[in-house]
Amino acid sequence: MARNAAAVTPRLRRWFLLLLVLASTAAAVIVLGTILAAEGFSLLELGILFLFSALFAWITTSFWISTIGFAVRLLGLRRQRSATGAQATGAPGTSGTTALVMPIYNEDPTRVAAGLRATLESLLDSRPAGRFDAYLLSDTTDPDIWLAEELAWSRLNREFAGRIDVYYRHRPRNLARKSGNIADFCESWGQRYDYMVVLDADSVMSGDCLTELVARMDANPRVGLIQVPPLPVLRESLFARSQQFASSVYGPPFAAGLAYWLEGESNYWGHNAIIRVAPFMEHCGLPELPGREPFGGEILSHDFVEAALLRRAGWEVWLADDLGGSFEEPPPTLIDHAKRDRRWCQGNLQHLGVVAARGLRPLSRLHLGMGVMSYLSSLLWLALLVLSGLEAWRQSRTDHSYFIEGNLFPNWPVSYAFEATTLLAITLAILYLPKIYGYLILLGERRRRVAHGGALKAGLGVVLESLMSILLAPILMLFQSGFIVSILAGRSVRWASQQRDDGETSWREAVAAHWPHTVVALLAGGFAYAANPVFFWWLTPVLAGPALSIPLSRFTSRADVGRRLRAWGIFLTPCESARPEVLQRLLDIQAQPAAPLVPPDTTSQASSGTTLFEQAIRDPFVNALHRTLLERQPRSKSERLRLDGLIARVQEAGAAALSREEKRDLLGDATSMATLHALAWQAEAPVPAGATGGPQGATG
Amino acid sequence: MEAKLIDAPLDPCFPPRPSSLDAGRPPLATCIDRYLRAAGLTDAARRAALTDSCLTDLTAKQRGGETSWAEIIAAIDRCLVRQLVPEAAQRVPPSVSGRVALRLGDGTAGGGLCDGSTPPRQHFAMHPQDLSLWRPRDVAAGGLLKRLQIGRPAQGIAACLLWLAVVVIP
Questions:
Q1: In chain B, which residues have pLDDT < 70?
Q2: Are the Cβ atoms of B117 and A694 closer than 8 angstroms?
Q3: Residue A317: closest CA among A281, A261, A268
């Protein structure tokens, strides 16, 4: 009975949320319908009403989630919830074996190693009960980055030898991208582990967070996955700092609302989550979708689908909104954010082919649908603006008829200004109240308030962030609308590695990325002003951002501006003012002078200025390390001949004569690397003629 | 005589480059010594001992003829593995982990570097899950839906007509 009650309560909450969304959307649609129906419905007005209802339902859902989360935190319901759900019981049990897996693809090896090292040191400090191993799962295609990864791994391996085993695996072929990388790990070593924690290349997690996750999995055998919301940290550009501030202030009520509403039917965001390996292996193998890219082929955004498959198999998926110690680095600039969005947009739109799959739970379908809507809403918003503009133009061309045939009484125009203003105010409230919730919660928690710079500076930060979002949101809307159109036109995206450092946007990049937005804004503004000046002024908040997108993009990318605001206490977050230990550790590691990956070889005059590929050919250690880490692959005769041809080209023209792909092919073959190594030494110091073995004593 | 490399025979198509330094070319021990220094062995005494060991190994394996760098490196690897990573000494193909252990150390108490870096692979396949779309149970309707396919050009025309309808008709 208690179990039934526990199952009914989340269902009731979801029905309640649905009721709130439907009721508020219906009310808004009725009000707008009343305004538009003043002189009868045109097809254009019907279109506006349809788009408005879809978009209003979308923003209302976020609003009610935040409102519920605000109430949860305010009333302390979080503490009540901590007695149920996916929480550790506190009783020490046998801790499972856990693998920390970090799929990497052409990332900065130094940063990857630093992040993993900080995580592992923090883990050791927390004295975990169970066994942890770490896996660097590389799909890197760049030869020098590949070699640098191996060298960075060798340092990690030596540092943690005897405490945590750190493994490195390089996959010769990047099948199915990140999901394929993780699947390869599961198929090869998954049976050794009870759990795996998936980390991104920029992820950092504290030891306490990791041990708590394992404890919760141990205590809740029906839980298949626990996602910890990652907090964006460590960036310095204005754009990134505003994102970090927003996440830190507005995130808690939203996350609390999500967790309260979803309970064991939450979602997976691809990293900073612990997964029970056995059910994942049994139920989360991803198929290729029928059809061609971008909708068919490999599933790009695998996380939502994997969570849905776990739920289909009856495993619970939880959001641990109460846990800290989970961090990631956001894109530093607006353009990098848009590039990431392009990948995610395609991945989410692809879910249109999955949302109606057999057997999925309704909430899983909702998660997939919301993922689609998070990008489709931009196109709908653009469409709404276009239709609104057309409607405004049409109305400006239409004279009001005071006398209708057959009616003696005049038809006075009715003003719906009050209704329109009310609707606008309600819409703005829905958009901005969640920010106020976050701020109010902050005011009530002294520690967090101080860590955010105090009430006044945090409030100023909220205002500035809101102003920035007013300017940037339309730019992102135009970006995402363009992405959707290009995806629908059949243009797929290559999953390139993300920009991970604070690189500023140059004027050239800004112009190249944003000139269409500027043109669209100027044209739209011109037409709007010519057609209906009143409508133009209503539209200026939406036009301002795109019109100024080029200087905005450049200005917000600047790290010096971000640092100056930080010095003034604006956009301050706890991760800056009261830095968690694991983040401080990461920064300390990064601040250490970088030791050369390969100690200089005093026997050779050619060691300076050589690439890692050339060092892998010549240096005994780099060559041996690389060959040790290579997996043996049989080669066909034709492939062997091709590789021998590449070796000959190296001999004749040097390593620089090879393309990146050719270097990679040679690096992938142990025999070729052995041959090149011997040939390099042969070329440098030919063995004297007639030299034979026998102890002669060392010279030199 | 075809030389035997660590993993495969050295192709005789790649002869050593002719050197103009016939006089003063270093003897074999100097080659070994030079390689060991490049491999990170800075201790002269240890280097000398290893050089002698490698020369003995080369003598034992020598079948006459020129000694190539491939043979020298192979001998060095055998000696290093015997000294530093004995468990890898029996591996086929012979291991280069001695050179790795030389630079990084031969492991700390209770654990250390492993040759090959990852545990042995198991092979458990993750089978692709069925994501076929839900279809109505009614066969007739299901059949109709399956037959109903709109090509991309038709989709584009439909989209244009919709937009025209929205823009023109009002």
A1: 1-26, 62-65, 88-94, 106-117, 134-150, 165-170
A2: no
A3: A268
Residue in B16, B35, B100 with CA at minimum distance from that of residue A700:
B35
| Most confident by average pLDDT, A10-14, A93-97, A212-216, A418-422 | A212-216
Terminal Cα-to-Cα distance of chain B (whole angstroms) = 90
The tens digit of pLDDT for each residue in A295-344 reads 788 888 999 999 999 999 999 999 998 898 999 999 999 999 999 998 89
Minimal CA separation from A60 to chain B, in Å: 27
Does the CA dihedral A694-A698-A699-B3 come out positive or negative? Answer: positive
Is A360 exposed, middle or buried (CB count within 10 Å of its CB: 0-12, 13-18, 19+)? Answer: buried
- Our measurement of the distance from residue A229's CA atom to the centroid of its chain's CA atoms, rounded to an integer in Å, reads 11
Helix axes A109-125, A207-219, angle to 10 degrees: 60
Q: Do B166 and A679 touch (CB under 8 A)?
A: no
Angle between helices A334-350 and A549-556 (to 10 degrees): 100
Closest CA to A104 of A182, A207, A175: A182
Whether B16 and chain A come into contact, CB under 8 Å, resolves to yes
Per-residue pLDDT tens digits for A76-124: 765 444 434 555 544 445 567 999 999 999 999 999 999 999 999 999 9
| Distant-in-sequence, close-in-space partners of A69: CB < 8 Å, separation ≥ 6 | A252, A253, A254, A255, A256, A257, A258, A259, A260, A437
Q: What value, to the nearest 5°, has the Cα angle with vertex A391 and ends A385 and A395?
A: 145
Spatial contact of B59 and A692, defined as CB atoms under 8 Å apart:
yes
What token pair was written down for A622?
A: 């780099």
Burial (0-12, 13-18, 19+ Cβ within 10 Å), B72: buried
Q: What is the dihedral of CA A290, A293, A295, A301, to 10 degrees?
A: 100
Tell me chain B's radius of gyration from C-alpha atoms. Answer: 33
Instruction: State how beta strands A98-104 and A223-227 pair.
Output: unpaired
Q: How do residues A430-452 score in pLDDT, each as one tens digit? A: 999 999 999 999 998 898 899 99
B83: left (phi over 0), alpha (psi -120 to 50) or beta: alpha
For residue A109, say if its preceding peptide bond is cis, omega within 30 degrees of 0: no
B12 touches chain A (CB under 8 A): no
Q: CB distance B14–A679 less than 8 Å?
A: yes
Check: complex ipTM more than 0.85: no
- Whether A605 shows a pLDDT value over 80: the answer reads no
| Among candidate residues A231, A223, A205, the one with its CA nearest the CA of residue A263 | A223
> What phi and psi values does residue A99 have, to the nearest 5 degrees?
-105, 130
Q: Does B136 touch chain A (CB under 8 A)?
A: no
